[in-house]
Design a protein that fits this description.
Length: about 160
Amino acid sequence: MSEQLGTQQNPNDQVGTFSIERIYIKDVSFESPRSPQTFKQAWRPELDLDLDAQHEKVGEDLYEVVLSLTTKVKNGDEPAFLCEIHQAGLFVVRGYDMPTLHRLLGSYCPSILFSYARELVDSLVVKGTFPAMMLAPVNFDAMYESLMKRREEQSANKLDNM
């Protein structure tokens, strides 16, 4: 799978390259600490979802992006299950300026990985004999913008405190 994403205004300038080399599960864990007692109670799930994405350069123009997703579900006051997934991918990214590269690695790649992680969470939850749980889509662009804004504010605060 390969996509061409342009970053230049001038059509004669070189266009960057983006391709997915591999999508894989780096780590996965499913725990149901109160089974079988949990199955005897009325099902009133309360979901707590934590997301994080990290990236690392692992070769020339090759980056590993890891989306960490932790799903904690309580039934009433008791934990029902905990599902932790590290969905990863290797991406070839070349020919982009730094801001575009960071946006691709911080927003676009995690968005691709989320669909795989979402399916894996649902599969594990069902295999744990809990009702299917399809996680709602996530706006990784908005998360990335929020992160960049926080970093900008932190930098400004450090300068103000000098």
